Structures are given as C-alpha cells and as structure tokens.
Fold this sequence. Notes:
Blueprint: E1 2-6, H1 8-16, H2 22-27, E2 28-33, H3 34-41, H4 48-59, E3 62-64, H5 68-80, H6 85-97, E4 101-103, E5 116-118
Parallel strand pairs: 1-2, 1-4, 2-3, 4-5
Helix pairs in contact: 5-6
Amino acid sequence: MGLIIADTNIIIYSIKGLKQIEPYILTYDFAVSEITVIELLGVKGIDVTTLKSRKNFLDECHLYQYNSFIRTIAIRLKQNYIIRIPDALIAATAIHYDVPFLTADKDFKKIEELEVMIIEL
C-alpha cells in the first residue's frame, strides 16, 4: 500500500462511511499533518463519541511532524496563492514529504507544486 496525506474533510467523510472514500482506504495508508489533528480534535463542544471516533481513526494514521521546512513552503504558498493558513500548512506538509494529497476541496487544484487527488462528492 502507498501512503497518502488525507485532508481533514477526508478523515471526517471516512469516519462517516462515505462510499466515495472506500477505494482510497483500501488502496492507501493514510497520513495526516499536525494541523489536521488540531482541526479534528480542537472543536468547541465536540461530543465524546465524535472525539473518540476521531482519535481512534487518527491512531491508525501516520503523523507528519511540523518543521521549519514546512513553514518555509507554507509561506511560499501563501505568497503565490490565495489560501488559508491551515490549508497552506497541510499542502506544504504533502509537498515537503513528497506524498500525494487527498481532499474533497477543489481549491487545492490551483497549487501547481502539489500532487493532489480530489474526490468528487
């Protein structure tokens, strides 16, 4: 199995059991950035069941650590594209580690340096 960095929306859809995600779960091992962990768990008022299911899913994922190289790439992405900081950091993680990125967010198509797979929902 190959490794793929999953966007936050992909993790949420996977936990919900969306059928469009299944082929990727069967084909790839999922990895996440630290930003995705924060986005998934740092939700005000998150219920215990949702928190537990997200933690359990994340326990099965490879975690890519944030570093100064990712910061530098994220800065360059912010300079070249209109992109939110969390998205820049997640994309920079995929670029730095040279791992494909899986998302349902079409806005990532504009990042030329990113190997992105976009799921149509």
